[in-house]
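Page 37, continued from 36.
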């Protein structure tokens, strides 16, 4: 057990060790400074020329959002129709059929918004063509969309008063060519040499040790698996995701994949500090996010390592913690992955979260409910920025001064936007959960392709937790799930599709708008009475705001689900 914990600590420290220089590199890339990736410049110029883009044209925040939303609308339509007609398209050696309209709607939105909630089973639900041309493509562009959005935040606070916030397509293109693509090639190469398939061959027939013959799916999986983690996407090539021995062959690949998930979200925090030349602020934000991670990690780790108390009463203690986990990785590595994948909104799994202990399930849900500790690619920092603005406002009231952040007054308009965005996430989660619970209990006869009575394989508190987890995952752009829930039906496909759509773009629009509004304001030099945002005191204040708001919004729902199950089990 001690060796397993050493492995977890090594994963975390390697992530930080890689994130710091990577943050410096990202800052240079967005500043347009010389870097080792300048050899990509001819490719970028070709893309700009073919697309008719002037990367030097400065945009204000409204133009950034117009570009972001319009290009994402095009990708949504493109993905929907390819998934709908995938059975008639090439590269389909296993002859998988096209998706139903409601499943195609859900899947297209899911991968467009960086959620990757999968209501289909990976290897049987998609063809090689759609795995590459829809899923892998969207995993690159959705991650780059989030980074391009947070780059507006970088530009807004890098100088004094300005409306010029860079060019969306410049940030977007460089994110792909100079960050995501090179790192994906490195990770995919590592996976291939450890046994992950990268061919276009169809299913292979193998004979197990017990003499049974089974059909094993293959395909060009390595590249998709690399970007699914580096882009904090999370969708699995195979149905069981990174618990599959071809998707995650051994402990080395497990370490590589979990580091890949968290390294860029961490790096963007450092990049923010480097870009605006306030490194101390970046360190404070990183410290708060790390404290938040530990708040969920420690209880989750202890709960999983201790296993099921009901089994202990039967005298079964050695193996109780291994339910739903891979022997290749062990309990500690699985518990570490569970928290990291939920706080950074990747949503990939190397164990079955539905088998987690109730306290662990609560920690995983809280990771998605706060949705700002490291967070997804770019949007984690944007979500944190919302809580930071609220903390600035509350702190200003406490000390009797007009709230300020980095030399800009935070006034009523910015606070109202921040409050609306902070309330949106619990609204989407709780309304969705309430509706699904209502139909499951009071109208089980309604036919949504699958009757509500058949949605849940588990009654009581755990069944409620399954529904709560699904909407939390959808709203937080996470994509993991409690797989006891029967979710491939019209109700769940449409409802979670809408939740994913609103949960992705409104929390991008709000912070970008606040950053743009603050950037236009007159810069106020710091004075003796200025509330500094780069201090440990203000960092603790921000942490308190995040945790109090999460508790107020979600504690009643958690009480009905994992907390009730915890007391029932004990």
């Amino acid at each position: 057990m001690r060796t397993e914990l050493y492995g977890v600590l090594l994963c975390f420290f390697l992530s930080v060790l890689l994130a710091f220089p990577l943050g410096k590199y990202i800052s240079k890339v967005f500043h347009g400074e010389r870097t080792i990736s300048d050899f990509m410049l001819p490719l970028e110029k070709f893309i700009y020329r073919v697309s008719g883009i002037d990367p030097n044209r400065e945009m204000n925040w409204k133009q950034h959002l117009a570009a972001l939303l319009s290009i994402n609308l095009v990708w949504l339509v493109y993905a929907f129709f390819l998934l709908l007609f995938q059975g008639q398209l090439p590269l389909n050696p296993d002859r998988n059929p096209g998706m139903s309209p409601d499943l195609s709607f859900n899947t297209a939105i899911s991968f467009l918004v960086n959620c990757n909630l999968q209501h289909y089973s990976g290897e049987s639900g998609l063809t090689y063509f759609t795995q590459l041309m829809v899923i892998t493509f969207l995993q690159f562009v959705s991650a780059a969309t989030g980074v391009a959005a947070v780059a507006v935040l970088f530009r807004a606070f890098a100088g004094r008063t300005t409306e010029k916030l860079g060019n969306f397509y410049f940030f977007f293109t460089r994110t792909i060519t100079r960050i995501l693509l090179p790192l994906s090639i490195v990770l995919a190469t590592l996976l291939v040499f450890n046994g992950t398939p990268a061919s276009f061959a169809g299913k292979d027939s193998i004979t197990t040790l017990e003499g049974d013959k089974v059909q094993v799916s293959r395909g060009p999986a390595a590249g998709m698996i690399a970007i699914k983690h580096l882009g904090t996407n999370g969708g699995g090539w195979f149905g069981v995701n990174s618990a599959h021995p071809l998707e995650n062959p051994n402990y080395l690949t497990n370490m590589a994949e979990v580091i890949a998930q968290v390294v860029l979200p961490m790096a963007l925090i450092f990049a923010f500090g480097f870009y605006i030349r306030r490194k101390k602020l970046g360190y404070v934000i990183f410290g708060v996010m790390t404290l938040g991670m530990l708040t969920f990690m420690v209880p989750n780790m202890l709960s999983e390592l201790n296993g099921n108390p009901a089994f202990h009463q039967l005298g079964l203690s050695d193996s109780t913690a291994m339910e739903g986990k891979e022997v290749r990785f062990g309990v500690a590595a699985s518990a570490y992955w569970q928290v990291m994948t939920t706080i950074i909104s990747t949503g990939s799994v190397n164990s079955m979260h539905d088998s987690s202990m109730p306290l662990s399930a609560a920690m995983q849900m809280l990771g998605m409910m706060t949705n700002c500790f490291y967070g997804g690619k770019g949007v984690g920092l944007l979500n944190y920025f919302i809580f930071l603005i609220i903390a600035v406002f509350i702190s200003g009231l406490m000390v009797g001064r007009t709230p300020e952040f980095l030399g800009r007054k935070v006034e009523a308009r910015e606070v109202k936007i921040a409050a609306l965005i902070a309330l949106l996430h619990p609204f989407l989660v709780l309304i969705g959960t309430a509706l699904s619970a209502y139909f499951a209990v009071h109208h089980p006869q309604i036919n949504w392709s699958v009757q509500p009575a058949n949605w849940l394989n588990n009654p009581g508190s755990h069944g409620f937790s399954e529904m709560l987890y699904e909407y939390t995952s959808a709203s937080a752009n996470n994509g993991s799930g409690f797989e006891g829930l029967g979710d491939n039906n019209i109700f769940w496909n449409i409802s979670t599709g809408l939740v994913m759509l609103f949960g992705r773009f409104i929390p991008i629009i709000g912070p970008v708008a606040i950053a743009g509004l603050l950037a236009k304001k007159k810069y106020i030099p710091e004075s003796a009475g200025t509330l500094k945002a780069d201090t440990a005191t203000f960092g603790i204040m921000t942490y308190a705001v995040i945790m109090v708001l999460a508790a107020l919004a979600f504690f009643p729902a958690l009480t009905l689900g994992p907390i009730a199950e915890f007391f029932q089990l004990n």
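The chain has 18 helices and four strands. Flag for discussion at group meeting. The first helix runs from residue 2 to 31.
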